[in-house]
Write a structure and sequence with these properties.
The protein is α+β, with helices and mostly antiparallel strands. The strands form 2 sheets. A 5-stranded antiparallel sheet has the order 4-5-3-6-7, with helices on one face. Strands 1-2 form a two-stranded antiparallel sheet. About 55% of the residues lie in helices and about 15% in strands. The protein has 8 helices and 7 strands.
Length: about 190
């Protein structure tokens, strides 16, 4: 039995779906796949401490790879999604402010532990690579524009803030100890 090419392509179209160069099970429809992606994005938006949206237009492949590496090393998830699916997910997550800002090529950095880390890494990378533009973000449920995200990025890390606090608490105690020692040395020199 011989099959011509037209019949073969017709069979393929009828019996399986091909999206993003991946074959999907014959029973799975495109709408089901999109629903899964929307549910995934919604979950990430709700679970993350911060989500920073950046415009990566103009970055070279090597630069994007370096940015992904920096995010990955910090435990931050960096993904590119279709804007229409991200808009639906933002609505589902109750982040309406984010919806109108999702235009053009965007990527999202999801930070789960440190809410400032995605902003800090994106801001540092944007200073070194002018083609990366910080657009907007949601940090602990609050909407931030690009200026607020850049200001947030300038806040020192939690560890640095704790070290500064401990240093400032230690300084008065140290000064008091030096004062007591100076008084004791002075009295000893006077022979008392």
């Amino acid at each position: 039995m011989s099959i011509n090419m037209t019949e073969a392509f017709s069979y393929v179209r009828q019996n399986r779906l091909v999206t993003n160069k991946k074959e999907v099970a014959p029973t799975m429809k495109a709408i089901d796949i999109k629903k899964e992606v929307v549910a995934e994005i919604t979950d990430k938006l709700q679970r993350s401490a911060s989500a920073i949206v950046v415009d990566y237009r103009g970055l070279k492949v090597e630069e994007v790879t370096e940015l992904r590496k920096q995010f990955r090393e910090a435990g931050i998830e960096y993904k590119v999604y279709k804007n229409t699916l991200t808009r639906l997910a933002a609505k589902n997550a109750g982040m309406e402010e984010l919806v109108k800002e999702l235009v053009g090529p965007n990527a999202i950095a999801f930070g789960y532990d440190d809410p400032v880390a995605p902003a800090r890494i994106a801001d540092k990378f944007a200073k070194e690579h002018k083609n990366l533009e910080i657009r907007v973000g949601v940090v602990e449920g609050a909407f931030y524009n690009a200026e607020k995200i850049k200001a947030l990025a300038d806040i020192p890390s939690r560890e640095v803030l704790i070290a500064k606090l401990l240093g400032s608490l230690k300084a008065p105690v140290s000064n008091f100890a030096y004062l007591i020692k100076a008084i004791a040395d002075k009295k000893e020199a006077e022979g008392v």
